[in-house]
Amino acid sequence: MLNHLRILILIPLLISCQNITEEKKPNIILIMTDDQGWGQTGYYKHPVLDTPNLDEMAKNGLRFDRFYAASPVCSPTRASVLTGRTNDRTGVFSWGYALRRQEKTLASALQKVGYSTGHFGKWHLNGLSGPGVPIFKDDSHHPGMFGFDHWLSVSNFFDINPLMSENGFFVDLKGSSSEIIVKKALEFIEEKSNQNLPFFTVIWDGSPHIPFMASEKDRNKFQNLDKRSQLHYGELAAFDRSIGLLREQLRKLDLAENTIIWYCSDNGGLTEIYPETVGGLKGSKNTIWEGGLRVPAIIEWPSVIKPKITSYPASTMDIFPTIAEIVGLSETNFIKPTDGISIKSLFDNDVKKRHNKIPFRYKNQGALLDNNFKLIATNIKENKFELYNLKTDPREIENLATENTIVFEKMKSEFLHWNQSVDSSIAGRDYPERKVLKNPESHYWNKDNRYQPFFQEWINRPEYREQILKVR
Ligand SMILES: [Ca+2]
């Protein structure tokens, strides 16, 4: 009898101890829009776009006014999020390139310490170009190969009524793509929280990337704009609504307090959209000017972060190192060198100056950001560099290379030194094998044998028709 009582007393004690340790691990949600420019939020007073849900999130969290995508295009920035490294080191030189399997990812690191990991939406790291198609179960570079237990993903951008792949099984879905992936992510979140497991959920939206498709209701909010801009802004309205859905449901599930939501865009805004997308900055997607790299970003974590606006410069390369510090992941989870740093100290301190510079490299162009100074390499091979002071000249008009030669020469030599280390990474020197193992070539799915059997079935889908007709 006494032994029985002891066991009965002990069991609840053990369970509650376990609950305490589990509770300490924050849940993590990464959200990324596709081609949303720095100026396209309500909290930056965009002239036609309202984003009430992003605005609420910004009011309740840490808002970054100088947050940078690692690259001015999609896939490279995604590679930087998962590895903490500049895109070129990982083999993702531009959009449509496959992430090397030799890289170590944030998802794998979190999986190892007990997180349930899920990817929802655009992947774009398996070497495929063209509108997003469902990813095959036996694809050598599907999200599961990089640490995701569960995935509902497409190869690239996707719109209304998407055809997606759930762990390799095709699912034909109806409705707004932003809402679909958030609802599916919430099902995953609820299931994991019922099992008392911490979750790492990546929601990579396909909006507001081309083709622009919005519901009548969302489009009608922008009746005074040209058709293309109406649909583009309509996509952002739907995205914002999905943020509202996510945050509301996290509160209902009593998960909001200890869940980190880190939101940003994957590159700068687009041209030929009116009103413009980059908040008055120079350049746009595809360029290394501020308009191509600077993106909106917010981290919300109610139990830890007090609301604040910062102009501390940070980047998508900082995401992995920051989460590693929060969760206590060891250094062995990274392929070195990393280019990002942990910015956790910003959560409870008013840090103004960044000590580590932020480097960029994309297609023989590059940049090095040292707080207010930005060195730009307009052509690395031809040794063409410029220098700007973003504080006095946020639109990058006045090249200070000859005026401020000390800063210019110093930053140039740092950039060139860093650039050599990137070349060494490209050659595979960071991996235990000291070389690059086989990786798929970047290609369009309409030239991929695996997809051809589906062409007959897909030819009437608006998102695929043009690609299929090109090869018929
Ligand atoms: Ca993009």
Total number of domains: 3
Q: Please state the oligomeric state of the protein chains shown.
A: single chain
SS element count, helices: 12
Structural class: alpha/beta
The radius of gyration computed from the alpha-carbon positions, rounded to a whole number of angstroms, is: 22 Å
Return the string of H and E elements.
HEHEHHEEEEEHEHHEHEEEHEEEEHEHH
Instruction: Supply the CATH superfamily name of the largest domain.
Output: Alkaline Phosphatase, subunit A
Characteristics:
single chain, 472 residues, alpha/beta, Alkaline Phosphatase, subunit A, Arylsulfatase, C-terminal domain, 3 domains, eleven-stranded mixed β-sheet, four-stranded antiparallel β-sheet, 12 helices, 17 strands
What is the gist of this entry?
The chain is built from twelve helices and 17 strands.
Provide a descriptive summary of the structure in words.
Helix 2 crosses helix 7 and helix 5 packs parallel to helix 7. The strands form 3 sheets. Strands 1, 2, 3, 5, 6, 7, 8, 9, 10, 11 and 12 form an 11-stranded mixed β-sheet that branches. A 4-stranded antiparallel β-sheet has the order 13-14-15-16, covered by helices on one side. It has a two-stranded parallel sheet with strand order 4-17. It folds into 3 domains: 26-355, Alkaline Phosphatase, subunit A; 359-426, Arylsulfatase, C-terminal domain (2-Layer Sandwich), CATH 3.30.1120.10; 442-472, no CATH class. A hairpin with a 2-residue loop joins strand 6 and strand 7 (169-172). It has helices spanning 2-24, 52-60, 74-83, 106-112, 177-194, 216-219, 227-252, 290-293, 319-327, 405-426, 455-458, 465-470; strands at residues 27-33, 62-68, 116-122, 128-129, 150-154, 163-166, 169-172, 199-204, 259-265, 294-300, 308-310, 314-315, 358-362, 365-370, 373-379, 384-389, 443-444. It is 30% helix and 18% strand. The longest helix has 26 residues, at 227-252. It has 12 helices and 17 strands. The chain has 472 residues and is of the alpha/beta class. Bound molecules: calcium ion. Calcium ion binds at residues 34-35, 74, 209, 266-267.
